[in-house]
Amino acid sequence: MNYDEWLKERENGIGGSECSAILGLNPYITNAELWEYKTGSKIKSDISDKERVIYGKNAELPLIEIFKFDYPEYDVIHNDFDLKRSKKYPFLFGSMDGELINKTNGKQGILEIKTALILNPIEWKHWDNQIPQNYYCQILHYFIVNPEKEFAIVKAQITSIKENETGFKQVKHETRHYYFERSKCIQDISYLEEKEIEFWNDFVLTKKRPALLIAA
After folding, report:
1. 109 has which bridge partners?
2. Which of 83, 110, 180, 211 gives 20 to 30 Å between its CA and that of 143?
3. 82-96: per-residue pLDDT in tens?
4. Residue 162, helix vs strand vs coil
5. Which of 181, 169, 176 has its CA nearest to residue 140?
6. Neighbour-count burial of 203, counting CB atoms closer than 10 A to its CB (0-12 exposed, 13-18 middle, 19+ buried)
């Protein structure tokens, strides 16, 4: 599908970048706002022209290519605007940055690319031996949509910017990789699945507004 078709398809259901809002763990959108978008009572703002959105989109393919160099043990499959729906719950969908196949044992996995700009020391805490909760929810969601996937790898490029004494902008990138096994996330997967089903069936389909949850 093309970009416009991909956007249209995303209107019908819950995607990986949205699911954390259901739990009150999305720093950009509340569960009530997500409900408004999914019931059609509010139109979602177009953020495709935002600088960091454009950067993340343009950086995705180069970062995937670097991943291939660093991890030759995986076959990497990437398709632009690829969207997969859960066979069990068609209202759950996901657009993965890449699909992985371990060349040694044939196990299938997920590749997710993240580009983060750190503006203050507090934001580093979200990356301290972990990934931000909204990104973790996204991985859990992809496990739900793709029950054949046994693991996931997040490649994160974390950027900080400061000016030196001459006024020259110093851009520093730190690359991190995070590995998740489905078998170790079963309880979290089940909890998110339960809440996603509840949100869709009890609130979106009935058009009943959920109680507001706010990200910490």
Report:
1. 100, 151
2. 211
3. 899 999 999 999 999
4. strand
5. 181
6. buried
CA distance 84 to 15: 10
List, as own/partner pairs, every contact residues 176-183 make where C-beta atoms lie below 8 angstroms and the sequence separation is at least 24, other chains included.
176/127, 177/153, 178/130, 178/131, 178/153, 178/154, 179/151, 179/152, 179/153, 180/139, 180/151, 180/152, 180/153, 180/154, 181/150, 181/151, 182/143, 182/149, 182/150, 182/151, 182/152, 183/150
Question: Residue ranges per domain, the chain?
Answer: 3-204
CB-CB contact of 98 with 76 (8 Å): yes
Query: Taken in order 139, 142, 147, 148, is the CA torsion positive or negative?
Result: negative
Bin 13: left if φ > 0, else alpha if -120 < ψ < 50, else beta: left
Q: Rounded mean pLDDT of 137-160?
A: 97
Q: Is the pTM of this model over 0.85?
A: yes
For the chain, the average pLDDT equals 92
CATH class of 3-204: alpha beta
